[in-house]
TrEMBL record:
UniProt-recorded name of the protein: Nickel import system ATP-binding protein NikD
Family named by the database record: Belongs to the ABC transporter superfamily.
Keyword tags: ATP-binding, Cell membrane, Ion transport, Membrane, Nucleotide-binding, Translocase, Transport
InterPro entries in the record: AAA+_ATPase (IPR003593), ABC_Ni/Peptide_Import (IPR050388), ABC_transporter-like_ATP-bd (IPR003439), ABC_transporter-like_CS (IPR017871), Oligopep_ABC_C (IPR013563), P-loop_NTPase (IPR027417)
Organism: Aminobacter ciceronei
Length: 338
């Protein structure tokens, strides 16, 4: 069963001006998030995951980063579809925190240190819904309780520094969900937390998503997290989506050498901590991500790819259909097997 698309990104290209040169951090991506599904955006550091989420929220640093091409069709709470790429700042401000909720890696980027947790959550309701002060504060307490913060009423009166990292992230989730958004964008929301807290936050997000039927765009570099939480996955490399499809399908049957490399570098259960103790890196793909200012011709992964042939260095591969809903940007996808 397919629900309606909440977010439909078509041909998005986002550029930065760096020392007088233009680099494309996101270079023509297509991505759909339906109601009630979680789509994970995964890839190594610098692949363009955060720039994609910042583009959707239109939070690119003004004068440095800009959307250069493409559409981001977004269905808001009232059911109207608008192109986020074409909206003015005033309209975006009405959408952020209202139709689109956001959770980042570091809770303190969303929380203001000088206001109490309860004030910050109720502020969102007051701004977007015109809810009165005491009603909004009651709603904030209920939300804090909902996201698993014990003694929510007392906590609502506390300041961010009085909460632990895990509790702070729960509070930002409460804030993100206060206005019942149709889309939640979570950029590495558990990366800064230790492992047991990570698992709890993922459970919380999953539960809330099921209950509310939101679409979730989940940015992570961790394939274990993808397996845990996502319905579909898009693998990013140097600003492009190189493979996408249902998580189970892509994990079982990866058809891009980069995805294969990421999966092979995933530690088996228990191996991660052993490797950490031994000081080894989890990166099993040889070589480095190319500089966006100096991209190779053809497939950007070719310099690191064991499957690369001359043709790979000629043209940028198109996204080919592997199976229904499963695509790969590799001309040799038929020969790739796990
Ligand atoms: N403010 C900026 N100014 C200039 N270039 C930028 C800026 N932000 C991002 N970039 C460029 O965009 C690329 C992609 O960055 P992005 O933050 O999207 O990576 P990411 O996939 O989220 O990586 P990570 O896993 O480290 O968070 C960077 O490597 C950099 O070249
Ligand atoms: Ni990032």
């Amino acid at each position: 069963m397919r629900t309606e698309p909440i977010l439909e990104i078509k041909g998005l290209r986002t550029v930065f001006r760096v020392r007088g040169r233009e680099i494309a951090a996101v270079n023509g991506i297509d991505l759909v998030v339906h109601a009630g599904e979680t789509v994970a955006l995964v890839g190594e550091s610098g692949s363009g995951k955060s720039v994609t989420s910042l583009s959707v929220m239109r939070l690119l640093a003004r004068g440095i980063g800009a959307i250069d091409a493409g559409e981001m069709l977004f269905r808001g709470k009232d059911g109207t579809v608008r192109d986020l790429a074409a909206l003015g700042e005033e309209e975006m401000r009405r959408i952020r925190g209202n139709d689109i909720g956001m959770v980042f890696q570091e809770p303190m980027t969303s929380l203001n240190p000088v206001y109490s947790i309860g004030d910050q959550i109720s502020e969102s309701l007051r701004v977007h819904r015109g809810t009165g002060r005491s009603t909004a504060l009651e709603a904030a307490v209920a939300l804090l309780d909902k996201v698993g913060i014990p003694d929510a009423r007392r906590r609502a009166g506390q300041y961010p520094h009085e909460l632990s990292g895990g509790m702070r992230q729960r509070a930002t989730i409460a804030m993100a969900l206060a206005c019942d958004p149709t889309l939640l964008i979570a950029d590495e929301p558990t990366t800064a937390l230790d492992v047991t807290i990570q698992a709890q936050i993922l459970d919380l997000l999953q539960g809330l998503q099921r209950e509310r039927g939101m679409g979730v765009l989940f940015v992570t570099h961790n394939l274990g997290v993808v397996a845990e939480i996502a319905d579909r996955v898009a693998v990013m490399y140097a600003g492009r989506i190189v493979e996408c499809g249902p998580v189970a399908e892509v994990f079982r049957n990866p058809r891009h050498p980069y995805t294969l490399g990421l999966l092979n570098s995933m530690p088996r259960l228990g191996a991660a901590s052993a490797m950490k103790r031994a000081g080894e890196k989890l990166n099993a793909i040889p070589g480095m991500v190319p500089s966006l200012a100096d991209m190779p011709a053809g497939c950007a992964f070719a310099p690191r790819c064991g499957f690369a042939i001359e043709a790979c260095r000629q043209n940028i591969p198109a996204l080919e259909s592997v199976a229904a809903g499963h695509g790969s940007r590799c001309i040799r996808w038929q020969e790739i097997a796990r």
